[in-house]
Amino acid sequence: MAGFRYGPYHEGPDPLAPPYDVRAALDAMGDSMLEGTSPADALRDLLRRGLPDEQRRRGLDDLLRQVRARRQELRGRGRLDGTLEEARSLLDRAIGQERAELFPDPSDEARLREAELDAIPADTAQAVRRLASYDWRSPDARRTFEELKDLLRRDVLDAQFRGMKQALSDPDPAAMQRVKDMMAALNDMLEKDARGEHTQEDFDNFMREYGDFFPDDPQNLEQLVDSLARRAAATERLLASLTPEQRAELAALMAQTLEDAGLAMEMERLSSSLRQRRPDLDWSGSERMTGDDPMSMGDATTALQELADLAELEGALRQDYPGARMDDIDEEAVRRALGRQAVDDLAELRRIEAELERQGYLKRRGGALDLTPKAVRRLGETALRRVFAQLDTARRGDHDQSDAGQAGELTGASRPWQHGDEQPIDVVRTVSNALRRGEYRPGRSGGTAVRLTVDDFEVLETERRTAAAVCLLVDLSYSMALRGTWGSAKQTALALHTLVSSKYPQDAIQVIGFSNYARVLPPTELAGLDWDMVQGTNLHHALLIAGRHLEKHPEHEPIVLIITDGEPTAHLLRDGRSSFDWPPSRETLELTLAEVDKMTRRRATLNIFMLADDERLVSFVQEVARRNGGRVFAPTPDRLGEYVVRDYLRVRRGRGG
């Protein structure tokens, strides 16, 4: 008999898990977009704030604060001249021990040695070079000077290769020879790669032999080069961060140490290769450290390398450059800097971005982020709910009716059903027709069943609802953004479009935006729409487009609603170009009012919603109302949607809608 064992699933995402719910994330984005923010900016704002309704999850701003706190902590860790200070201390001790040994000796040789010590330069590097051939009489002084040379050798190499200090803790000369062999093999591998001859097998063989020198455990040559180049660049920045005197002294000590160790040539080869491969790194910058404790050269280089990594991570977390994506953030860098919890937070934020695209709410086109019709529908519903929440309870109207957008009131008559009819079925007449045909059959429980055919069905006649051709003209000019009314206008347009599409599908709505020119705004463009940073309020062009929409629907009742914060300042020339004048030219006003008169002849009432009280605007809309008979409203921006939707519903009810 077959047996089965069960355990956790480790082959990727749980295939039985429900789809990730990003609707709350989309709604949070909608809050920004309905205020006038683009989809890309709204997504970035959401990722900065973090997941909605997820208190334990942090956004990019929280991670940024952690990164900046970590950078501040590193800067306060200590001073960069620790190796130089310790080298000076050991040198002074060795010289002092030698003088103590020479002082009791009355011989001329002792005096000559003291004179030689007196002539030692103050510069630590020059002193070490001079004393390298000195025959120490004091055993303690000799041991101290050897300790100094070991310190320099370990710290200088540790600055270039992280973890080298541990590898060189063994004083056996064979350990130093192994370092030389490693560097020669490394340089040979880099040169072989430059010729296009390197293979992964070469790298694997190298790591088997010298992997203990590289605690980062790189998996290929590129990872190794990246680690070494970042370390080498940090060493250069360490020198640049010191005073000129300290820089010269430490650089000379490094050169002397490498020369004494027989590594000067190999180190020069390596530095040249790393610079050529990673010229993008900061090789000349500097950091200001504020701590009091001296750090060794290796520790200082590690701190500077981490500071550089944090600076790079901070730039990626800001996501404020063109084409920024969550994939740009290095997960490993986040783990090193902030720990495992931050990696989990980042994964959740990435999941939001990915799921919004995968579930069909967002799409990328030419590097830009766009909303899909699915997302626009949801945001439109959100905008409409907000508008309805503002309507007075006593005047909510058709939006609460379950049959809104259906047929009108029953007339009491019925007629045969036709394909496409949406009227209610007349059950009594339908069954009566079947009975008159006399087609029966025995029922399952012993009774008689009546067989219905298509010809038996009848529907109840209703009053015909009047369809409307709706034009919403929305000002897109720069002044709308300056006055802070653009977000309200966009939310209103989206809410009205959703209302008409869902509750009154027999109506034909067209949203027209206008600035220096006018254009039809499709539903998918509404939510992500931005204002135009141009001069001109071309209501003349907008009315021309609206007139064409009304003429395409001659049987529909015309409804024209205009949202604007300024008088017309532009009109369309015969050649199709826009002409701008401020104050408005006489020609602009005449052409615009001529289109108003055409609307009046079409029986289209123009209702205008003013978002400013400028004298010229008030004068203009009063003239439009006089010529057309339309109404003028002056709502506050936060009540614009309520006014527009309520006016649309009023007009529909008044015209049999």
TrEMBL record:
> What Pfam families does this protein's entry cite?
VWA_2 (PF13519)
Q: Where is this region: Disordered?
A: 275-296, 394-421
Gene3D superfamilies membership = von Willebrand factor, type A domain
Q: Which domain of life is it from?
A: Bacteria
Q: Where's the VWFA domain?
A: 467-648
Q: What is the name of this protein? A: VWA domain-containing protein
Q: Which organism is it from?
A: Actinoallomurus vinaceus
